[in-house]
Amino acid sequence: MSSYVVLARRWRPRTFATLVGQGHVTQALTHALTMGRVPHAFLFSGIRGVGKTTLARLLAMCLDCEQGVSADPCGQCTSCREIVAGNHPDVLEIDAASRTKVEQMREVLDMVGYSPAVSRYKVYILDEVHMLSSQSFNALLKTLEEPPAHVKFIFATTEPRKIPATILSRCQRYDLKRVPRDLLTAHLRQILETESIPFDPAGVEAVVRSAGGSVRDALSLLDQVIAHGAGAVRFAAVSDLLGLTDPESILHLLDALLHGRGPEVLQGAADFYNHGVEPDSLVRELLDATHRLTQQKLLGIVTLATGAQGTTPDILPRLVAEISLEHFQMVYQVLLRGSQDLRIAEDALQALEMLLLRVAYLKPVPSLEKLLASLPNSDPAPPGEAVGGSAPGSVTGSAPGIAPDPAPVVVRAAPVIGGQPLTSWQQLVSFAASREGGLAVKLEQLVVCSRFETDPNGVPCTIALRLASDIYGTPDHFKQSLAQFLTAQGMPDVCITVEPVSAAPRRDTLGEAAVRLRRELQARLTEKMSNHPVMQKIITRLQAELVRVEPLVSGKVGQGA
């Protein structure tokens, strides 16, 4: 009895290939070892039980194997066996949590200068390195940056954020991930089959869900479940031991929640509670089921856990078809926020019942199409109909049944080519925009044209301007810039005058006029939309407020809608 070794130790990986779910790390280490590019310091970070310490020991075996440095140690030589057993003289595993003082770190660093006793490298493995004190980290800095050639440091931590940046910058960091459920499930099944232990798929899935992506947690739970189930892994034993629920029962409760059957919800909660299921555990199961139903709705992939008999309940496709994504999201948010209140409630069952009733009587969010279809006398065009016969469904648009005003933007005429006339200041600015954009912006935003004359051939001859702002130059500067542009376009004889900025009343610049027209159009559209009967019914039904309406410009909703 005393010689029994738990599964987590018996099935500890001995090669990179058998490490579960960390292929991105093992691939990088394999290439580094093969190419001889092995750094002097490593940092492995990740949650508990994903292989940090195991990976450190594997790396030590790769470095000190008697067959030579390689990514595939023999595992049979004296050095490999001693590293696996934890008694190799040149591989020191140090628990940083119990050696936090700077004096203890200095004792370790004093040994760095000595050559390895029997192997190629002296390897220091510091587990939970984030527990070291600030003084210990400072004492480690210089040695970590320039250690002797025979020394390798391997750090492992679950809290990399607590490690100083000066230490992180001196290490080659590898982040280990949570092991995906499918990989962990396949790993547990392989172990059970090799150990000749009977199991059912639902029981293994329940263990994997409880492990939270940790291989060690999964194997420890599996050991416990085997003992509880008299040598077998059955869902009933797992449920009884861990206080879990049958996925099919969770779906029935979720069905009652999503369809607002309050009495059935209360009865289901009482049944779970009487069978020993903790309220916070039940809420976690409901959150998980809601998340998986949302995935099924969105992706069309069945990801929900199977029932106790290994079959997917018939209720699953019905829930996916009947409930909208918006309602799934709302239910998830209420359950998630309510789970925090359960921890502070004196009566957990009472808090659970009130939370579930809150979810049961949530009103589903109606789509705009269904809302419009339910309104009587909704013959006028819906507010979301696009201008000019564009496809419906836009969030903003012109008022129903109202011909839209022209878009309040500056008209961009085609560039003047081959002697075509420029008969207005606006056409000249538009032409400048196609040739010299910076000048066109200044002319549009900072200059007012008081006179624009052309000769009988339609060629500009007189242009009188007045500055609205001198932020980008003096009148002479604007005159010179415009004259150079016109000369380059074959119009050197235009008479240009530019007045300075003054307090006298003036007309709007082209940019100011466009902004004013846009605001006037928006105000008219908003007023017309507010008075439309369909929009008034929507505002009343949803207790909403119409903030503003913007026109569709070139088939797109205006910015800021």
Q: Biggest β-sheet: count, sense, barrel?
A: 5 strands, parallel
- What CATH calls the topology of the largest domain is Rossmann fold
**By helix and strand content, what is the structural category?**
alpha/beta
Widest sheet: strand order?
2-3-4-1-5
Q: What secondary-structure arrangement, pairings included, does this model have?
A:
Elements: H1 7-10, H2 23-35, E1 41-45, H3 52-64, H4 78-85, E2 91-95, H5 102-110, E3 122-127, H6 134-145, E4 151-157, H7 165-168, E5 172-175, H8 181-194, H9 201-211, H10 215-228, H11 235-242, H12 247-258, H13 262-274, H14 279-299, H15 315-322, H16 325-342, H17 348-360, H18 368-374, H19 425-435, H20 437-446, E6 447-454, E7 460-467, H21 475-488, E8 495-499, H22 510-530, H23 533-542, E9 552-553, E10 556-557
Parallel strand pairs: 1-4, 1-5, 2-3, 3-4, 7-8
Antiparallel strand pairs: 6-7, 9-10
Helix pairs in contact: 3-4, 5-6, 8-9, 9-10, 9-11, 12-13, 12-14, 13-17, 14-15, 14-16, 16-17, 19-20
Any overview of this molecule?
- There is one protein chain.
- The chain is built from 23 helices and 10 strands.
- The protein has 561 residues and is of the alpha/beta class.
- The chain folds into 4 domains: 169 residues, P-loop containing nucleotide triphosphate hydrolases (Rossmann fold); 62 residues, Helicase, Ruva Protein, domain 3; 114 residues, Up-down Bundle (Zinc Finger, Delta Prime, domain 3); 90 residues, GMP Synthetase, Chain A, domain 3, CATH 3.30.300.
- Strands 2-3-4-1-5 form a 5-stranded parallel sheet, with helices on one face. Strands 6-7-8 form a 3-stranded mixed sheet.
- The C terminus is likely disordered.
